[in-house]
Each structure stands twice: as C-alpha cells, then as structure tokens.
Design goal:
Blueprint (H helix, E strand, L loop, with lengths): L1 H25 L6 E4 L5 E4 L6 E3 L2 H9 L6 E3 L17 E2 L2 E2 L1 H7 L3 E4 L5 H9 L4 E3 L5 H14 L3 H22 L9 E5 L13 H8 L3 E2 L11 H7 L3 E4 L5 H10 L8 H4 L3 E3 L4 H4 L5 H39 L10 H15 L8 H19 L1
Parallel strand pairs: 3-4, 3-7, 7-8, 9-10, 9-11, 11-12
Antiparallel strand pairs: 1-2, 5-6
Helix pairs in contact: 5-6, 6-12
C-alpha cells in the first residue's frame, strides 16, 4: 500500500511538472510574477490583473494590441486609438490625472509613464496601487515593452505574435537600407514644432526610424532638443519631416516653407517638406510605429536613389579626370617602355643642356685667359 501511495504521488508530481513545462512553452504567464519596469523598479504581480488602468495613450494602444482591451477600466482623454479606447472611462490628461476617479476604478495594476510626473507616480504608489512605468526611448524598447505588458497581463503569446509581425515588416525595409553608405543617405530633419524648432535627436524612436528608412538625421544631440536656424542651414537637409499633433504638422510645414532663411536648403528648393497626417504612428511608441517606418521610408527612398546617381556621376567624373591626366603625362609620349622613356629623356636633357651649366666651366675659362696673356707677354 505504501508503495502504491508513493507511485500515485510520483505520477502527480510528473503531471504538475509537465503542466508547468507546457505552460512555459505556450507562453502562459504564471503568478506571482516578478518583473523589472523601465525605471529598474522590481515589481511583483500577485495574480492576473483583471482591472487595468493606463495613464498614457501608448500604453492603451499596447494593451488593446495584446488582447486585453476588455480589462482596461480607465484611460486618459488623449486615448484615440484604437477607436474602442475612446469609450473607456477617463481619468484626466496624462499630465493632470484625476486621482479620485482612479481610486473609484480600483485598478489591479496601473501602466504609467515618466511623462505623468514624479509627484503623480508617487501619489499612485502611496494610494497602494501596483504601478509599472513604461518609458521607451528606442524601437527595441517599444518591442520589449509590448512583450512585457503581454507577460504581465497574461497574454504573452499574443504579444510575441505582435512583435514578430512588427519585426518582419521592419526587416522588409531594413534589409534594403542597412548597407547604404553614409554618403548616399539623405539628410533628414524631423521637426515637432517650428518656433522654436524642436527636433527629434539621437536615442529617440523617430531617429531610429530615420536610420532604418535609409536616412541620416542631421540632429546629433540627444532627445528632443531645439535646433537653431544656423545649424539647419549648415547641415542643408534634403528632407524635412513636419509632425505635430492636432493638425500641427501642417502649421509647421507652412512656417518652414515661408522661412526665407531656409529657402536655400535642398529640402525647400526641391519641395521635399512633408507633413505627417497622423503623427501618432511615429510619436506614440506602440505597435503602429511600423506604419511610421513605412511612411518615412516612402519619403526617403526616392532621395536615396538620387544620391546614388550623384555618387556614380561623381565617381565617373573622377575616373575620367584620372584617365585624362594619365594620357597627358610626358612619360606617355616617349616610345617604348617607361624605363626606356626615362633614359631617352635623360639623354635628351644632357644633350640639350647649355655648356655653361657644366661644373667648373667658369674656372676653365679664367685659366685659359691667364695662359693666353702669359704667351702674349713672352712673345713681346
């Protein structure tokens, strides 16, 4: 009987182990779950969240993309995508959260952002909420966050499917652009406002998208800094992208086109100033970032071809000049091989050299004059 009891226990343990292995392989999240958010906070989620709050439009988009939109009980007034997000209860704007509304919604977890402000985040924590900060800077960060949110919400497999599809679409473009030499990459300026000129710099997702599209971002400072007029003119962008929420793209574009100082840039001269009709596909760090990549590549690709043609023409001119110089070289006018030509030139130079160029010639003339004088004196 004892042996039989041990045998049954063994079978139960095997079944549990197999079940756990199967869950891991299938992407099923097991709770309690401990994760590290974008601000290096270690957080433990005790059970699968059934009431989720989002304080940023990007987090809302991701939650719907990974299949947990029905569990989102609150969002901000800025949530516009997907269309279903417009209907969820609102807790104010992301910079002025309504904490009373948040308390009433009783969320299990809050997906927040540094943009909410340090005081707001601390308030959420003080109220006892589990707060996960999502703060991407690059395309890789966006992909990792989609997978993180999928894991936290119990939809890891769906999240992985989303990111795999995104990577496939991105690879279709980067496979054509990653080997483009620097000299063939069009110079791009990405503006999010015109007065002053705020631009997307290094370590921002628009910068990543410009590089992936085959362009060269002229803003070399990090983040979203102001770029002055003199630097824009000196960098001479071939393409200017105008991106502003709420129709701001067209306001920026008109201002740039009417700026007399910028009229000398290639972008203005060649009418390569483009407004982004839906800035969210580039500036909201979520799954639609792939659409932003496609749009930027559509603007940049034609200029890549122009630059490649110019490079080929320049190389052709340089080669022609080198061949012409080679043909006009004096050595090429001497019959025979190069050594014979050099010898012939040397002999010709020696034969044609004036006599007075011979070493000691002046001494010889003086000596002859002295001898002649001596003989005349002796005769007389």
């Amino acid at each position: 009987m004892m042996f039989k009891g041990f045998y049954v226990l063994f079978l139960i343990l095997v079944l549990i182990s197999a079940s756990n292995a199967s869950a891991i392989e299938s992407g099923i999240t097991e709770y309690p779950l401990t994760i590290v958010d974008n601000m290096n906070n270690t957080i433990t989620i005790e059970s699968k969240p059934e009431r989720i709050l989002s304080t940023m439009p990007s987090n809302t988009e991701i939650l719907f993309a990974v299949g947990v939109g029905e569990y989102v009980v609150g969002g901000t007034i800025h949530d516009e995508y997907p269309p279903e997000a417009v209907e969820i209860p609102k807790v104010g704007g992301y910079t002025n959260l309504d904490f009373e509304a948040i308390v009433n919604l009783e969320p299990d977890v809050v997906f927040a952002s540094e943009a909410n402000g340090e005081d707001a985040i601390n308030m959420l924590k003080d109220l006892g909420f589990t707060v996960i900060i999502i703060e991407p800077n690059t395309i890789d960060d966006i992909m990792n966050n989609i997978e993180l949110i999928g894991e936290v919400t119990g939809n890891k497999e769906t999240a992985l499917s989303v990111t795999e599809d995104m990577r496939a679409q991105m690879d279709a473009i980067t496979s054509k652009t990653e080997d483009i030499p620097a000299e063939d990459r069009p110079r791009v300026l990405y503006l999010i406002w015109h007065d002053p000129m705020y631009s997307a710099g290094l370590n921002s997702y628009p910068d990543d998208l410009i590089t992936m599209s085959g362009g060269n971002n002229i803003q070399k400072a990090e983040g979203w800094p102001v770029i002055n007029l003199e630097n824009v003119i000196a960098s001479n962008p071939q393409i200017i992208i105008c991106s502003g929420m709420g129709g701001g793209s067209y306001v920026i574009m008109e201002s740039i086109k009417n700026n007399d100082a910028l009229a000398q840039t290639d972008a203005i001269k060649n009418n390569k100033v483009y407004p982004i009709d839906q800035p969210g596909i580039i500036e909201i760090p979520g799954p639609r970032i792939v659409e932003g990549l496609k749009e930027l590549h559509g603007y940049i690709e034609p200029e890549i071809e122009v630059n490649e043609e110019q490079t080929e023409e320049e190389e052709s001119v340089i080669k022609a000049n080198e061949e012409q110089l080679e043909d006009e070289s004096p050595l090429n006018n001497v019959p025979g091989d190069s050594e014979s030509g050099i010898q012939a030139n040397a002999e010709q130079t020696e034969q044609e050299a004036p006599v007075n160029s011979t070493p000691g010639f002046s001494v010889m003339v003086a000596s002859c004059m002295l001898v002649a004088g001596y003989l005349r004196a002796k005769r007389s």
